[in-house]
Specification:
Length: 221
Amino acid sequence: MSATTAEHTHDSHHEAHSHVPPYHVQLKSNRMGLWLFFISEIFLFGALFAARFYLWYVPGVGQTRPELSQELGLLATTVLLVSSYFVFRGETAMEHGDRSRFLNSYMMAALLGLVFFVAVVVMEWNVFGLEGSIAGIELFGHLGVDDGVYAGVFYAMTGMHALHVITGVMLLLFVWNRGRKGDYSPERHWGVEGCALYWHYVDVVWVFFYPALYLIGTAVH
């Protein structure tokens, strides 16, 4: 190959790669895109939140709510908040190059996310129609799909949130697998950061949903 041809080939490769923006530019764009997604999600969750307070308001009584298992709701909330700690722990570990701690933390967060999903969807929804309690704590919900606006709002709010949780679990496992293969470094780990932001966002949504569903208003059968 002549020197001229080699130089032309090098210039062609350089031009081809020049269309790829630097990593720090991509990082800013990724962050902006994710936050725009979060803002759009506020309208979705905000509509559900507003529907709860509008439809569960009874004239002469005030705000009401279905009689749900307080213990199960508190357990699910605690599990989700603890999972957020492990996500933070894993992200911090990756920033410092501690891959082992990152992997352990993200796997633990994914497992806790599955526990939350089981507590809310399987047990609170009582998809199998089971009955049972331990030490007086009701393990399975009694709110049926035919219980009017109470069921409609409850299943809509918890169902939409559970969909985000299970999506977050899949993201955690995907990022964990990439981290296991060594795809992230302290300098380049947007996947870890983006997944952590998504998980924390889902947790914050539940911080508002939990009191709206379990604590605010008069419990009715």
